[in-house]
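Onboarding guide, step 5: your first structure request.
Type a short instruction followed by the sequence, for example:

Predict the 3D structure of this protein.
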Amino acid sequence: MSVDPSIFKAYDVRGIYPTTLNEEIAYKIGQGYADFVKPKGEIAVGHDVRLHSEKLKNEVVRGLTDAGVNVVDVGLISTDMYYFAVGHYQLGGGIQSTASHNPPEWHGFKMVKESVKPLTFEQGITQIRDFAASGKSIKAPSKGNLRKTNIEEDYASFVLGWLAPDKIKPMKVVINANFGYAGLIFKKIVQKGKLPLEIVELNTIPDGTFPKGRPDPFVPENRTEFTELVGSTESDLGIAWDADADRVFFAADGGLFVEPYYLNTILIRKMLAKYPGEKVIYDPRYSWALIDEIEKNGGKPVISRVGHSFIKEAMRSENALFATESSGHTYYRDFWYADSGMIPVMQILEFLSEGNVKLSETVRPVMQKYFISGEINSAVADKEAKMAEIGQKYKDGKQSTLDGIAVEYEQYRFVVRPSNTEPLLRLTVEGKTRKIMEEKKEEILKLIRS
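The system replies with structure tokens like these:
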């Protein structure tokens, strides 16, 4: 069977089951991973709630063990639990069968080496792609061992280490797992830590058909049910995860959806209060509020390209404490430089309890200081030519080409980035008034789409 090279993305593998990604290709990917990584020690494998994730995982396991690799099957887990398994147990690497927040027909794999170091397109994903397409196979003289284990207790204990459970005040909390695994593990964490939370559940029973559509709470139309429930139940906080739970989003009391950009200012404050003077990584999409908060709290801001492999690489090279992305990913040095959808929840619960404050009161001042557009995609045939045209039109602004083109003026700034996989340009605009942000958004969009 031929292998569609398009399923090998910049950061992971994603395809449609069973046409571009199926059991046969999963086996080849397991073999290709063994060939490239040559792991020392056991490999963790797990799967998300998708209908075929476990079957695909089992074929990856077969590919690994046929190649002589020893495997630990950690079962149905979230992506950040998979990172935890590799890091905490000091394993030789890992593969999670997941397609993150994609629709149900999508399946895929996220892969790391030892110490939770990600495979990148240049170093790992391309080589696995080529191995899978080559028709080669590895049959080791001695087949690798397979054992199964449950990591929930250890993971719950680790997550609870990010707060002081006895200091958490009683709160009513809405949780929306988007039919992924996060709701079950969050309830286990709450029970284990005896946290005084009244939980209102939404979409917490795992369902790989994702009956309410794409399991991504960052999509505006997916927020309404969640935010309305927070308001109607008079809850203190709302928490929503994407399907594989490596991203987390919050709604404040009253049902106000809090963009990760604004929420991240609180996490920066908490991290730097505990570790003053450290470096914090941020991405270029929106930056003013983050730079303000980092510098105000004695930290050192460091910019990185968008994308988890770039951010993790920057964190390691800078020995950075923490990193934020405006897409809802949050990374921690003390989580093996990986992203977690559960640690930020612990930090926000602690923050609200320590100061006896409302989330809405905390975020509104920064929301009223910097206004953002959201990420807007436009189909463009020649992405490079269009970015050059934009650079020429706005040549009087302060420019950066770290990731696409970023242009900054006194009252507004914007970033236009190319998609890694599609003929799209992505626009984000940030302004010091809503009026100027809206005006410049329309102006730049008109140029992009002309």
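Each response can be followed by summary notes, for example: The first helix runs from residue 23 to 37.
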